Amino acid sequence: MAIAPRPTGAQRFTDARTAKIAELIIPTVTDQGLYLEELELSPSGGTTTLKVSVDQPSGTDQVDLDTVAALSQAISARLDEEDVLPELDSYELEVSTPGATRPLTEPRHFERNLGRLLEITPTGGSPILARLTAVHDDSITVAEQKPAPKKGMPVKYADPAEIGFASITQARVQVEFSHTE
Fold first, then answer.
1. Which of 29, 87, 108, 114 is most exposed, with minimal Cβ within 10 Å?
2. Which residues belong to any copy of the Ribosome maturation factor RimP N-terminal domain (predicted)?
3. Which CATH number is 125's domain given?
4. DSSP string spanning 122-144?
5. Is residue 181 part of a domain?
6. Do 13 and 49 belong together in one domain?
7. Residue 9: pLDDT above 70?
8. Within this chain, do residues 30 and 82 fall inside the same structural domain, yes or no?
9. Is residue 179 part of a domain?
10. What's the pLDDT tens digit per position in 102-119?
11. 30/65 same-domain check
12. Per-residue DSSP letter, 12
């Protein structure tokens, strides 16, 4: 991608505290069939919040709330066992998923959003709205959404086109609302 992709593997957690926490909780996360997306320690008021973001490793299924709740309890128990934050009197644990409009920065993020409408900003170009139809090793295939000629007319799409990851500056899922009559 034109923007620097986020580090993967152990390089994702660069400071010593988050690396230690990640090493401790990754087995707990993977035991639940999930992927540790992000980990952040942030001071808020008199306490510190440990934010843990998890996602499915592949596919398009979503992480349900029961799984997030069970994982939160398992991570809390694991952290209490090891006392990895002894310098903190207390901390709050937040376990969540990345959210629908997070930036897509890795090929696996695109794979998780097959079929969805994306806003893609190509290097040196204007943002486009396009339906993601395929993900390849170094590119994606999309069908650009054409503006409707009149309000209420069905949406039309251009022929599929391939865009290399190296030429994508930014990409986000566009939340779509549909209704049935």
1. 87
2. 25-100
3. 2.30.30
4. ETTS--EEEEEEEE-SSEEEEEE
5. no
6. yes
7. no
8. yes
9. no
10. 889 889 899 989 999 999
11. yes
12. G
Task: Give the residue ranges of DSSP H helices in 54-118.
Answer: 65-82, 107-111
Give the model confidence (pLDDT) of 38-76 as tens digits. Answer: 898 888 777 888 999 999 888 778 899 999 999 999 999
How many domains is the chain built from? Answer: 2
Which residue's entry shows tokens 């251009």? Answer: 158
Percent of the chain with pLDDT over 70: 88
The 10s digit of each residue's pLDDT in 80-104 is 888 777 676 678 999 999 887 788 9
Contact in structure between 39 and 29 (CB atoms under 8 Å): no
101 lies in some domain: no
* Spatial strand order in the sheet of 91-96: 35-44, 47-55, 91-96
Task: Give the residue numbers spanning the domain of 42.
Answer: 9-96
Residue 146 falls inside a structural domain? yes
- Residues in Cβ contact with 104 at an 8 Å cutoff, skipping those fewer than 6 apart: 110, 113, 118, 171, 172, 173
Q: What is the pLDDT of residue 75?
A: 94
